[in-house]
UniProtKB/TrEMBL annotation:
MF annotations from Gene Ontology: iron-sulfur cluster binding; oxidoreductase activity
Domain annotation 2Fe-2S ferredoxin-type: ranges: 243-339
Keyword terms: FAD, Flavoprotein, Membrane, Transmembrane, Transmembrane helix, Ubiquinone
Transmembrane residue ranges: 207-226
Organism: Colwellia chukchiensis
Limits of the FAD-binding FR-type domain: 340-479
Lineage of the organism: Bacteria, Pseudomonadati, Pseudomonadota, Gammaproteobacteria, Alteromonadales
Name of the protein: NADH:ubiquinone oxidoreductase, Na(+)-translocating, F subunit
Presence of keyword Membrane: yes
InterPro entries tied to this protein: 2Fe-2S_ferredoxin-like_sf, 2Fe-2S_ferredoxin-type, Beta-grasp_dom_sf, FAD-bd_FR_type, Flavoprot_Pyr_Nucl_cyt_Rdtase, FNR_nucleotide-bd, OxRdtase_FAD/NAD-bd, PepSY-ass_TM
Superkingdom of origin organism: Bacteria
Length: 618
């Protein structure tokens, strides 16, 4: 329940913040705008008032005697002539539905506001140099005068601001002058008052709905605050005291002691000691990766309840981001790889292996080896720098693929990004000194957003340049000591961890001389050029009888003879034909849409969730 409340609160915060931004922007505009132009009355002038000859006026009683029921009668002036305005139905305000008739005050003749008369009235109220170009009788609703509920004549003038004069079709009253300046201001009023139906009122359904959603936003925030307080996550101490923190490994042996500030978040405190726990949510508790083991008496937050079962919680499993260092005396790491220090990596090789994906090879500065399970990833620290949307040193053969990408130069702040290792040598011969990554250069959807900062920076490095990274982190790997058939499903740059797992399995079988279990690799790409390492996998399928490779293209050329379509569709057709789902493990990595569909297919076909592993890199 709390996870739902948090998610709802975050989405509501986006909605409320967006409308607040609109209010601030439009409010600033109203303060800076030219109020004379905003009125629409640049060319409006007062109408000439008729000189009344009292002796010629018809008695009002004679007019009333021959008319339908009248609410009120008054003498008005139109085009320098006197008229009796008879009100038969009166709205509370002039713009509300009303019914009038006109009688000439000298002759007693009934008068209707014709097209010609409306044009003359509009011309008399207009002081500009424009000529009348059209006269149109309209019925509500109106774009320029949304509140008006009576029929009007619209008289349009040919001037530089496209003036329109609106004349009441019954009374001849000048309802309004409007022009492009006023229409521009009206657009900001629509935004400011959320009057997206253009009713001319702030009392609309959008404001009511927004008010209810804002109340819900406050309510979810209050519930979240109460939940934080209930679990003791508020620390109002202003002290800068430090305390000693004891760090244990998973075997409960002390491996480090260091001082941390009591007010610092535990995840950040460990990061300050170069102990980088994996985390992709920025410490919000939603990814559940920064797992540690604390005393069983430690408080339990709603985020931890969502990521651990009751047995794990009783054993002390917690999330580092949910606790302050001041609460903790000692903690145990669930995986010794969390002790990984920062490494300085030097780029040794950079090569395009598809139009948008590069293979990057790094050497660990210092020459030492890193051990890791295939499927692991590393966290790169991207420094603040100037970026460019199109790769530097782009090969001539690939330039046609980038010609639709707009050249954009930009500056970006320091950040960190996670990338999976694409080499399966992490557990062979004591680890490896060469780290391989396949990184897709992420393009921006338009010029209003930046392209992929991390991928652009890394793929523009030149051999010899260095960068800091921490890891490897093992969150996605092959099940150890399993004899089940392996099915790996990937697409795009999701290739990296799957390639590493395949190579690790093949190398381990070769070294141990054990029988290799069946491995099936289904890989999807758009075109033949996007197939990563095709020759490598074809060679492996020839070398190892238990390894099967299934490339599939969604946009193949006419000469393509293998499978066509999407990799998840190939999985659906082959699932029961080739695999015994009760004795098969599935490993997925690729774009979110492919992963979601593939997992739905597996679950619908009876695959147990414990036999599905995935690396949600996107």
């Amino acid at each position: 329940m709390m996870s739902m409340i948090k998610k709802l609160h975050k989405w509501l915060s986006l909605l409320v913040a967006l409308q607040l931004f609109i209010w601030l922007g439009t409010g600033l505009f109203f303060n800076l705008m030219d109020h004379e132009k905003a009125s629409g009355n640049q060319y409006r002038q007062s109408l000439q008032v008729a000189a009344i000859e009292q002796a010629r006026l018809i008695e009002p009683s004679l007019v009333l005697a021959s008319a339908q029921p009248v609410v009120s009668i008054r003498l008005i002036s139109l085009l320098a002539e006197p008229y009796y305005l008879l009100t038969h139905q009166q709205g509370l305000y002039r713009h509300l539905k009303s019914e009038y008739s006109l009688v000439h005050a000298y002759t007693g003749a009934r008068v209707r506001i014709t097209e010609l008369m409306a044009a003359e009235i509009a011309q008399a109220s207009y002081s500009g140099a424009g000529q009348i170009i059209s006269v149109v009788k309209l019925s509500p609703p109106y774009q320029d005068i949304p509140k008006e509920k009576n029929q009007v004549w619209q008289v349009n003038f040919a001037d530089q601001i496209n003036t329109s004069v609106y004349v009441d079709s019954q009374s001849g009253r000048i309802v309004s002058h409007s022009n492009d300046d006023k229409r521009f201001v009206d657009f900001f009023f629509i935004l400011h008052f959320m009057d997206y139906g253009n009713t001319g009122s702030f009392n609309n359904i959008q404001v009511i709905v927004f008010g209810l959603l804002t109340m819900l936003f406050c309510l979810t925030g209050f519930i979240w605050t109460v939940d934080l307080a209930r679990h003791g996550q508020f620390n109002f101490s202003v002290s800068r005291q430090k305390r000693q923190l004891i760090l244990l490994n998973k075997s409960q042996h002390t491996i480090a002691k260091f001082e941390v500030s009591k007010r610092v978040n535990l995840l950040d405190a460990l990061n300050q000691q170069d102990i980088a726990l994996p985390s992709s949510c920025g410490g919000g508790g939603s990814c559940g990766q920064c797992k540690v083991k604390l005393k069983t008496s430690s408080k339990i937050t709603s985020a931890e309840q969502a990521h651990f079962n009751n047995q794990q919680l009783k054993q002390g499993y917690r999330l580092a981001c949910q606790h302050n260092a001041g609460e903790i005396e000692q903690l145990s790491l669930l995986n010794d790889v969390a002790l990984a220090k920062k490494h300085l990596l030097e780029l040794s090789h950079s090569e395009f292996i598809s139009p948008f994906i590069k293979e990057l090879r790094f050497k660990v500065v210092g020459g030492y080896r890193l051990r890791y399970k295939a499927g692991a990833h590393m966290r790169f620290f991207i420094p603040a720098a100037n970026g460019v949307s199109i790769p530097q040193r782009l090969p001539e053969a690939l330039k046609p693929h980038w010609q639709e990408i707009a050249l954009l130069q930009y500056q970006h702040k320091a950040c960190s990004r996670h990338y999976s290792l694409a080499c399966g040598k992490g557990q062979v011969d004591g680890g490896t000194n060469e780290l391989v990554f396949t990184i897709k250069i992420q393009n921006a959807a338009n010029n209003s957003v930046l392209p992929g900062i991390g991928s652009s920076y890394l793929c523009n490095l030149t051999p010899g340049q260095t960068i800091s990274a921490v890891g490897p982190f093992e969150a996605f790997y092959a099940q150890p000591a399993s004899n089940k058939t392996m099915v790996l499903i990937g697409a795009g740059s999701g290739m990296a961890p799957l390639k590493a797992i395949i190579e690790e399995q093949l190398s381990a079988a070769q070294v141990s001389k054990c029988k290799l279990r069946e491995i099936h690799f289904l890989y999807g790409a758009r075109t033949r050029q996007d197939l990563l390492y095709q020759a490598h996998f074809l060679q492996l399928s020839q070398q190892y009888q238990q390894f099967y490779y299934y490339p599939v293209l969604s946009n193949p050329d006419p000469q393509w003879q293998a499978d066509k379509g999407y990799v998840q569709a190939l999985l659906a057709t082959q699932l029961h034909t080739i695999f015994d789902v009760s004795h098969t493990e599935f490993y997925l990595c690729g774009p979110a849409a492919m992963m979601t569909t593939a997992m739905e297919i597996l679950i619908e076909n009876g695959v147990d969730a414990s036999n599905i592993a995935f690396d949600k890199f996107s």
